[in-house]
């Protein structure tokens, strides 16, 4: 908001550090900086950084040495170049975890200061805050320039006799004025720096001459298109070589304008996007490799015949890497390699794709014998592809898992293979080898999964007089998947009943171990007292002690009926939530609403507080807890809201029609989730419902 000071958020800093900041940014400083110092804790700092990143009040978060999980806190703060940066104190206990920060965030967003150099914190915070405010101002100026350039009437007044008015002359983006033949008439300071223009050699020189010959025709056509239309032309990037021999990528955006004398000109915005283009290309390459790795991982962990999954892998490899052919070979019992799946751009049938012509068997045999990768960038002229064209490159990687050779991955293409491509091939070969080995161990894994899942859920639900209690757990996958969702219900020594439903971060045996830890800690803690603050605190301490991933949890305590002889009386339920989706309450008249129950995750912070919400269950009412598979079953970008599930319950027939209302609600939610997500479902589903019988 205009007039608001920029802020420095002091997150759990030591008193002496706070004094240094008061001295550096207090009202008595000679710098005249308008900076507000805000003292906050790790548990409350998120309240001061709410809002959409890029639109928040500019701030720098100084994370003190007393914050136990600084990396997780910085992730939660969502640093953004336009409004939030962070500096964190690295101690001996947190330094190893902070080594990931330079990989995840640039130095102008997040910095770490060694514990011995905390005196540098105020200066570092001032630099980061200056960068944030500077970038915000630059973004504002660029937006203003763009609006001005697309408004013909405003530009007409600014051009005048000097062609470029004072506004464009000082603009932070390059601007040039061209005659109708494409020659340069005027330019601003930024354009001079970007294109290396001078007053003698550049005036009346065609703009296209500043670019290499092979790009000039396209640039002339781009400028001509702008002269033929009244709307601004599209942005196109042209590459050139600077005077120092370095390559440049210049974004050219032309627009037809009219000067004060009524003559038509072409105004060109020229922006140096070299770093951005290189970053985009690198990101595109890494994204392509990441997507390929994800596709291969998904194929090798999916259900179905192994041959189909291997073909998905080679198809994705050929498509993502632009190869002519990709093949996977497996070994027969005698050790001889034979093609198991091939993807060839020119063959369509399975018989053609598996034809021996699709790879060099001699090279594959050599890889099998040596158990080492083979790269052939300049193959002999006598080796050809199946269509008779000379091959450009051949790469082969052994498939090894647990020291055992399983097969070979080969790739053939007319083009040279860059080093990054070879790295991704190694990664794919490892994934495929593990996937094939996994297929061979299918029976043992299924038995192991069943053994691990038994202690994750209670053997049976308790009988609650006057209530119907029902729960379901549906793991994602085909029986080999160990999920992180769980539920539990048991009677406490004080006569109350405890209901819990949670979701552990992660999958597999590790998640199973954490789930067991949480369930048994819940039960043990409730034997002393069912108070939510006490129980959730002990669970959090147990997770922190084991240094495990976080866990979300919905915890409820069902109080004894105030009058056991009166079945119509309301029963009180005390509910606490640790980062879990909002529970649902379905009234007897059919209305259903989410309950406002919020609290921090377990296993992240040392000290936390979970507010307790009280609800009353009257005859015919149902309380429902569920995991995020019901709202984010296909990923966070394709999600449903708790209100959607509440609407489903409201439209469901009254559960009082039979003796198992909770069971009917649970079945309806599961059926709807499978119907809604279908094959997109990629998460476990767990639901627990409690109905007050009338």
Structural summary, described in words:
This protein is of the alpha+beta class. The chain folds into four domains: 6-142, Response regulator (Rossmann fold), CATH 3.40.50; 150-272, PAS domain (Beta-Lactamase), CATH 3.30.450.20; 284-440, Beta-Lactamase (2-Layer Sandwich); 460-662 and 680-692, PPM-type phosphatase domain (Phosphatase 2c, domain 1). The protein has a five-stranded parallel beta sheet, with helices on both faces. It has a five-stranded antiparallel beta sheet with strand order 7-6-10-9-8. Helix 1 (15-25) links the parallel strand 1 (6-11) and strand 2 (35-40). Helix 10 (274-301) runs antiparallel to helix 11, helix 11 runs antiparallel to helix 14 (419-440) and helix 16 packs antiparallel against helix 17. The longest helix has 29 residues, at 121-149. The two termini are 54 Å apart.
CATH domain topology of the largest domain: Phosphatase 2c, domain 1
The main β sheet shows up as: 5 strands, parallel
**Integer-rounded radius of gyration:** 33 Å
Name the CATH architecture of the largest domain.
Answer: 4-Layer Sandwich
CATH class (first level) name of the largest domain: Alpha Beta
Q: Got a strand count?
A: 25
Shape summary: globular
Distance between the ends: 54 Å
Multimeric state: single chain
Please tally the helical runs, counting DSSP H or I stretches of 4 or more residues.
19
Instruction: Report low-confidence residues grouped into runs of 5 or more.
Output: 149-162, 351-359, 379-390
CATH superfamily of the largest domain: PPM-type phosphatase domain
Q: How helix-rich are the residues, as a percent range?
A: 25-40%
Mean pLDDT, all residues: 82
Strand order in the sheet with the most strands = 2-1-3-4-5
